[in-house]
């Protein structure tokens, strides 16, 4: 379908598709096996100025928006969901600075992120605070002109590899969610170390580690916004970033669909390609329809955010929910079309399926997305009633 992309956006897609075909797809299986972080691919993406797509030009970026980021993430994800999330997770760690940083903070951190010299990461999740983000235990105590951080974050994408971290910590536990604040923490700060690298089902090329803060002293200038804004920073960041997760899911689904169509045309049973059988045709038709529907929702949501709509939480949740559910179904069907070969690591279908699963989980499980959508509907109905 023609989504009326600008010439620049079409160029972004073409460039990212070329990088995927030449640099990502050839190494995807090996990096999945070795769990090696894809630094060589990140360098190629950096040289192509793609890390700055969504960052203002005055801070070294390209001045684009969420849709531009989604287009790049989708294309990279067709080749490898693990490699694509290394790229997209840097945006997740950057959005809090874009949304709530002072000009001084933006001048200090955004240019290096935009040029791909440094990756970013977002530190929210803890052992006891997953879906319940308000239950975080990491603390930030103000002492003179510094804050002292103590606590542990886990399941942090780009953990250990990123240089710049936006971290949510409690500055006043008595206020619950309103006592959380957001901070910028640089790798190498004394008292800031990393835990084990997680051994994951999918997206294995990406690094997922613990962030450990032990009397970690950071300047008070590293506070984002003001004290007590941490939960709002988190929610507004997710409103911006969830379409990116949806785009990752979309790319994984499209990659699996492409592989399934190719295989169905080549695989011969009963004397003819299995693509000639109605049972397979119906599966492919449903897969293609669901992928296109997901693309329409993801692109529309990204455009809505880029237009300046500040109340996009419901639509971002819908895009993430629908695209990730589609990815799980489409990749499962792709494995089925491949048959026994689909279960083998020699073929790409099983990796697409493993990579798809996380998109239903991180940045808010799909059950949480349904809560967000339903609450927004109820709130809207209450307003209309008045």
Tally of extended strands? Answer: 10
Helical segment tally?
Answer: 10
Strand order of the largest sheet: 1-4-5-8
CA-CA gap between termini: 41 Å
Looking at the overall shape, the CATH architecture of the largest domain is Up-down Bundle
CATH topology of the largest domain: Butyryl-CoA Dehydrogenase, subunit A, domain 3
User: Regarding CATH, which class of the largest domain?
Assistant: Mainly Alpha
* Tally of distinct domains: 3
Low-confidence stretches: none
Write the layout of secondary structure elements.
Elements: H1 7-34, H2 39-47, H3 66-79, H4 81-100, H5 103-114, E1 120-123, E2 139-143, E3 146-157, E4 164-170, E5 180-186, E6 192-197, E7 208-219, E8 223-224, H6 230-266, E9 268-269, E10 272-273, H7 278-306, H8 313-338, H9 349-358, H10 366-385
Parallel strand pairs: 1-4
Antiparallel strand pairs: 2-3, 3-7, 4-5, 5-8, 6-7, 9-10
Helix pairs in contact: 1-3, 3-4, 3-6, 4-5, 4-6, 6-7, 6-8, 6-9, 7-8, 8-9, 8-10
